[in-house]
Amino acid sequence: MNKFTYASVSTTDAAIAEMDEHDSPKFIAGGTNLLDLMKVNVENPDHLIDITQIAFNQIEATADGGLRLGALVTNADTAWNEEVEKRYPLLSKAILAGASPQLRNMATNGGNLMQRTRCYYFYDTATPCNKREPGSGCSAIGGYNRILAILGTSEHCIATHPSDMCVALVALGATINITGINGDRTIPITEFHRLPGDRPDLDNTLQAGDIVTSIDLPVQGFEKNYAYLKVRDRASYAFALVSVAAALTLEGNQIKEARLVLGGVAHKPWRSAEAEAALTHQEASVSTFEKAAAIALEGAKGYGDNTFKIELAKRAIVRALKQAAGLEEQA
Amino acid sequence: MINPREYIEPGSSWPLGHAVPDQPATHTVKLNINGQDVHLKIEPWVSLLDALREYIGLTGTKKGCDHGQCGACTVLVDGKRINSCLTLAVMKQGCEITTIEGLAKGDELHPMQEAFVEHDAYQCGYCTPGQICSAIGLINEGIANTRDEISELMSGNICRCGAYPHILDAIEQVKGVAGHE
User: Fold this and answer.
1) Domains in chain A: ranges and CATH
2) Signal peptide position in this chain (chain B) (predicted)?
3) Element spanning A228, H or E
């Protein structure tokens, strides 16, 4: 780890002011991903600004009846929050599918959004990586790429976003509240993360000095018909090969509304509007789900070691939708 | 136990013989460890794990992977289990930190320690301090009730020797005795 200076702040104004005074500053909260990356010299900030004393530590109702998750509330406190468990069980389930209890006690909601890829080559400073060193090349394309992306990739990067929480947040239609040099703004979570394109060094659309203050969940929580299915190399505490967040509203056996989002397959949580359209106003049946799964994976591209993920994702979608519709018990 | 010195001046030695750094980058930090205030002058990049082991001399907490993957460094902060290797000591001022050394009352072991001994819940013992702190954190959370749930919520602690069945036996016993079932 490189040497750095440290300051703790208690207001966003102070945090933004600290940003201006250093060459390569970083905000730190839970630190579970940042410190890990600093230990392998992938992140090398000259100054850490500790934002944990800023009051973004509440879960509270929003004016329109939704729920606001403070950016500094830990993943564990969010997953086990009574309102979240009752109204947004999909989110609880997704959070608890990720990391370990210790990490979830440290990691914050804002930090979960900011997680960086676990691509082996991104972590290995001895190899080229366009995300770590723009223009150096992608070692994963043509390299060992079993865990990497099959959708939305570019010739410059096939990294995946590692979060489980964010997959559920996309399915729930969350919005992200941000404060920064130019004031406050709110964006849909689908506009927070980005695809790699020719700038894989940029994970998201935040500008320098921006701070995520909270995440808003809309009223609709899909608490009756939901599933989060995570497929991984061991039963617990591993990143997803493929994960599926499925959420339905049903009227009898008819699907009124559907949300379908994949994790572990792209540079961002992968929501398939086309697959959702193929589910809407259809009968909740295996044949409907199989059609939707095929549509969701249209355009998927394997890179050799990860080609199995295309079929795996289709089967995971069918199973998750069966669970969400109550045709199969949730694991 | 913790070196009883209330404040260690720059230039003097820590219990393990490190020179106390005296640079502009150092921070004066007060940590509450096992009920005792400890004053340190440390650089901001010192992890809580390194502060415990290398600066304070509490070597019960183990360094395994140093990347939050194995759980050997698990300690309790305000009663919650965390990985001390992925935490900066400078960020834990004002918190109550409990390590494996702080669990027993004199010669009387903590019930979780007793249960680990009784059930032979270890082989080499390297992961054990982390397992025990994690298990106490699990009991504090009050979420896990079945053996499967305990197993899932202990997945952040790896045991290279594979003592998992006995570790689960020990935790189940303490949960039963504590009336959490």
Assistant:
1) 5-51 (3.30.43.10), 225-324 (3.30.390.50)
2) none
3) strand A225-231
